[in-house]
Amino acid sequence: MAQSITSLNFEALVATGKVVVVDFWATWCGPCRxxxxxxxxxxxxxxxxxIVGKCDVEEDEELPARFRVLxxxxxxxxxxxxxxxxxxxxxxxxxLEDKLKALL
Length: 104
Known about the structure:
Blueprint: E1 3-4, H1 10-14, E2 19-25, H2 30-45, E3 50-56, H3 62-66, E4 74-79, E5 82-88, H4 93-103
Parallel strand pairs: 1-3, 2-3
Antiparallel strand pairs: 2-4, 4-5
């Protein structure tokens, strides 16, 4: 299951040294709902290798502001606490999985 990622737990997740994938989304966003099952699958399939989670932009405004997320869904790929890749908009699993695999 995708982890809930917020400004409160973000630093601790990054400190694990694992690749962190954050899906910025909102409940009212149609493309976000389309992407949700893909994020859940990646969280399950890469459990232990990477941290895959979701940040609800309605519940946590600080984290999206920190990364200047202007459109949702936006998926950020972080390594060593730095954004190393980004995907804006709903895409297929293979697009996100290719980006994730390249970082592992």
